[in-house]
């Protein structure tokens, strides 16, 4: 699969890149992206590389306030990639597209590519959020084309236009529980349901065609991705396969990966502490989303519990370590840089609840467990209020030392991590004029900062081509987005 870059295409690119031929409309940018993405789908970070190239030349699919909106521009690149794979046959097409095929290609897939196609996928409110403009995010109205089925396998007929929305949210809730055990199981569940209710209710009010909140539906997916903790002695050991890593080391992974695998929250547990890769996991066939959703719909229709259908065959990939499907999915834009609104609201509310028990007044460093991210961020917020620079530096230095001591981050990155977080906090806390607020106001400010700056969660992996500091822990030996098992 791919286009054939003939002389006509090369001449066209030379003319537009040289400013000889003006780029004046959506279709012009689409034609350029059609050529650029040919090489991108087989090399580098694909849609993430191509968007940088478009922006470097001053081109964007957006107009007005949507100009250079990163999510919008990558969305159209992902749509081109989806159309490529539909034109051929997933990864196995025999007839490569040529530059002269563009008009026929555009006509055949006009529904995916036309100038207002984004309105079927993104709400205006969500797309125009500053975070959505800066970082690539999944649509909030329906899934990207074909992204709910495993790559390189026959596509499922979607049971709904946004079948991934609740599973993705439930996955984040489940991983959050594995990452920390500070809050009780029921508390995390209640936070998850309340924040989901608020987000979906707002969305349904603005877009009545979207599903309204259903606690039954939400709990169905929580049950799949989020099991209550059980005594470690009662857990059954998972059968494992040995998987060879790129560096040559060996890692054990579950033979039958499952969203309900109850992984212990150890700090070196890759599934618990690595970035979220839900979209890549779906692409690799780890989760049978459509069968599970069909099971739920059957239960609702019949009013009784429906046993799941026999599992589909388990596919054992070879390669890095999933036959390369996760990386191909990444190149197609199936993995976000920042999560959905319901995920972000949930994580921010969890952080707010975690810090609520620390009491009023200034917090002493000895009171903080620096293995907990929300505590670390609260300490940075407090440091931002310290006017005496010498005192502030001493406080931050002690925070860095404790973070390293707890194994949260490497010594070489601790200083930059804390100071990057401080730069984000400073504009928010100026309103307090150096006075530490009460517990409720402090918690609400932390929640607001996290909602507006969700990169502080470090739950999603930023594209390496972005010149943006990543607030990851830098202790997990993750293979980036080359594997779905991180």
TrEMBL record:
The organism of origin for this protein: Pseudopithomyces chartarum
Put simply, this protein is called: Uncharacterized protein
* Region (Disordered), start-end ranges: 232-262
């Amino acid at each position: 699969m791919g286009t054939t870059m003939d002389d006509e295409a090369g001449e066209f690119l030379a003319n537009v890149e040289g400013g000889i031929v003006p780029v004046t409309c959506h279709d012009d940018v689409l034609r350029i992206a059609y050529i650029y993405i040919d090489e991108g789908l087989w090399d580098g970070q694909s849609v993430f590389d191509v968007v940088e190239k478009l922006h470097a030349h001053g081109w964007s699919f957006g107009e007005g306030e949507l100009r250079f909106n990163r999510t919008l521009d990558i969305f159209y690149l992902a749509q081109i990639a989806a159309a490529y794979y539909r034109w051929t046959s997933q990864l196995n097409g025999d007839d490569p597209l040529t530059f002269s095929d563009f008009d026929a290609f555009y006509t055949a897939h006009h529904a995916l590519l036309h100038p207002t196609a984004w309105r079927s996928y993104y709400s205006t409110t969500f797309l125009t959020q500053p975070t959505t403009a800066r970082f690539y995010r999944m649509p909030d109205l329906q899934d990207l084309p074909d992204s709910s089925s495993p790559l390189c396998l026959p596509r499922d007929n979607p049971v709904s236009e946004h079948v991934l929305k609740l599973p993705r949210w439930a996955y984040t809730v489940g991983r959050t529980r594995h990452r920390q055990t500070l809050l009780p199981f029921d508390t995390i569940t209640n936070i998850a349901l309340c924040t989901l209710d608020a987000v979906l209710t707002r969305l349904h009010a603005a877009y009545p065609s979207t599903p309204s909140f259903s606690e039954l539906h939400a709990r169905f997916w929580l049950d799949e991705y989020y099991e209550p903790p059980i005594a470690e002695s009662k857990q059954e050991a998972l059968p494992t396969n040995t998987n060879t890593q790129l560096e040559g080391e060996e890692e054990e992974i579950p033979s039958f990966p499952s969203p309900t695998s109850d992984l212990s929250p150890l700090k070196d547990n890759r599934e618990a502490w690595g970035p979220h890769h839900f979209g890549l996991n779906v692409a690799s066939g780890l989760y049978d989303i459509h069968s599970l959703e069909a099971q739920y719909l059957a239960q609702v229709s019949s009013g009784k519990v429906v046993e799941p259908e026999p599992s589909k065959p388990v596919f054992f990939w070879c390669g890095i370590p999933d036959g390369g499907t996760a990386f191909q999915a990444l190149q197609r834009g199936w993995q976000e840089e920042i999560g959905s609104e319901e995920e972000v609201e949930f994580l921010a509310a969890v952080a707010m609840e975690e810090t609520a028990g620390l009491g009023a007044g200034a917090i002493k460093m000895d009171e903080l467990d620096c293995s907990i991210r929300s505590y670390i961020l609260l300490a940075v917020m407090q440091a931002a209020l310290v006017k005496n620079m010498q005192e502030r530096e001493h406080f931050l230095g002690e925070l860095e030392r404790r973070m390293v001591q707890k194994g949260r981050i490497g010594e070489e990155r601790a200083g930059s991590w804390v100071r990057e977080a401080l730069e984000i906090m400073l504009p928010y806390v100026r309103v307090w004029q150096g006075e530490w607020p009460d517990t409720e106001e402090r918690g609400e400010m932390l929640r607001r900062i996290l909602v507006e700056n969700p990169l502080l969660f470090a739950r999603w992996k930023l594209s390496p081509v972005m010149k943006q500091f990543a607030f990851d822990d830098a202790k997990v030996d993750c293979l980036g987005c080359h594997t779905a098992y991180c």
